[in-house]
Specification:
With 310 residues, the protein is an alpha/beta fold. The mean pLDDT is 95. Helix content is 44%, strand content 13%. A 9-stranded parallel beta sheet has the order 2-1-9-8-7-6-5-4-3. The relative contact order is 0.15. The chain is globular and about 60 Å long. α2 (27-39) packs antiparallel against α11, α8 packs across α9 and α10 (253-262) packs antiparallel against α11 (271-285). The structure holds 3-hydroxy-3-methylglutaryl-coenzyme A (HMG) and magnesium ion.
């Protein structure tokens, strides 16, 4: 691992985070959140999801959110798309990058999308044809990669095969999702090796860690050792998946940035500005962020505001 090397942080808070909020976050608050994250230097901000509003009412305003966000040059704004209808809705508002999602286990995929893994690839086929014809960039997620809330342990060979299949059908990047936050570093090393050996270049693999059991950062360090350079996270540690009981938020962007910058990696992201975006959102939702680095920054600034310690 060399100092100054670039790492891409994929911010998923506006999608993975807000899909899991209990209340409906007002459209203008979502728009301001996405804009603040891009202004903080995040080069990829997963903005929303064009899924069924019955499945995810929290993101029912996705078209309006996407349309209203002031796009910064050089920033990518991917959106989650489950099927052709989702793609049509995304294209109608000018999305240029989509994320498809399936899982390593049928039970989870059925609960999440009403489709088996096999059926989800059948749904993706026409989506990929149209997306490629329109020149869109396509990412693919594999949920329950490290463990499933319904099936328990996941066969790493089976999970790796789903990742390779996504790559083979045309996803430029495959994100390995620890949906319920059960992974440990030795598992990360094992699966990354498998996915790489099966033909996905290391530069095309991303890690998507939820931090349910506090192992997300340890898994990132293992990913870095394996030469992964793309990591997903959510500002303030927002998130979870409504179809994964017990799933906590994503690894917090502030915590990831603190680690990466401290280890000498470059991200181009201003940590303090991400924390400011988190604070503004928290003021609207009334929910305290779970990021430890966010908490540390706030207590440091509170101490500074209170004057010298006596
Ligand atoms: P379905 O019921 O099988 O779909 O749902 P359908 O094709 O039979 O259609 C049923 C109704 O939904 C129809 O409406 C469609 O028009 C409508 P009706 O005629 O009954 O009024 N519909 C849509 N509406 C808007 N946008 C669409 C759309 N598609 C159909 N795209 C479906 C299948 C996939 C749509 C549904 O199950 C769904 O939307 N699921 C999404 C679940 C979801 O968003 N989960 C969270 C994201 S995944 C995640 O968080 C994991 C990740 O972070 C990685 C990790 O952590 O592991 C990515
Ligand atoms: Mg997730």
């Amino acid at each position: 691992m060399s100092r100054g090397e670039r790492v891409t942080v994929v911010e998923v808070g506006p999608r993975d985070g807000l899909q899991n909020e209990k209340g409906f976050v007002p459209t203008e608050v979502k728009v301001a959140f996405v804009e603040a994250l891009a202004d903080a230097g995040l080069g990829v901000v997963e903005t929303t999801a064009f899924v069924s509003p019955r499945a995810i009412p929290q993101l029912a305003d996705s078209a309006e959110v996407f349309s209203r966000v002031r796009k910064r040059a050089g920033v990518r704004y991917p959106v989650l798309v489950p099927n052709e209808k989702g793609l049509a809705r995304a294209l109608a508002v000018g999305a240029r990058e989509i994320s498809l999602f399936t899982a390593a286990t049928d039970t989870f995929n059925l609960r999440n999308t009403n489709a088996t893994i096999e059926e989800s690839f059948a749904r993706f086929a026409p989506v990929l044809v149209r997306a490629k014809a329109d020149g869109l960039r396509v990412r693919g997620y594999v949920s329950t990669f490290f463990g499933c809330p319904y099936e328990g342990r996941v066969d790493p060979a089976k999970a790796a095969a789903v990742a390779v299949r996504l790559y083979d059908v045309g996803c430029e990047e495959v994100s390995l999702g620890d949906t319920i936050g059960v992974a440990v570093p030795s598992q990360v090393a094992d699966v990354v090796e498998r996915v790489r050996e099966a033909g996905v270049p290391i530069g095309q693999i991303a890690l998507h860690m939820h931090d349910t059991r506090g192992t997300a950062l340890a898994n990132v360090v293992e990913g870095l050792r394996e030469r992964i350079r793309v990591f997903d996270s959510s500002a303030g540690g927002l998130g979870g998946c409504p179809y994964a009981p017990g799933a906590a938020g994503n690894l917090a962007t502030e915590d990831l940035l603190y680690l990466l910058h401290g280890m000498g990696f470059e991200t181009g992201v201003d940590l303090a500005r991400v924390a400011a975006a988190t604070r503004a959102l928290a003021e609207s939702t009334g929910r305290a962020p779970v990021s430890r680095v966010f908490a540390a920054l706030n207590s440091a600034s509170a101490r500074a505001a209170a004057g010298p310690a006596r």
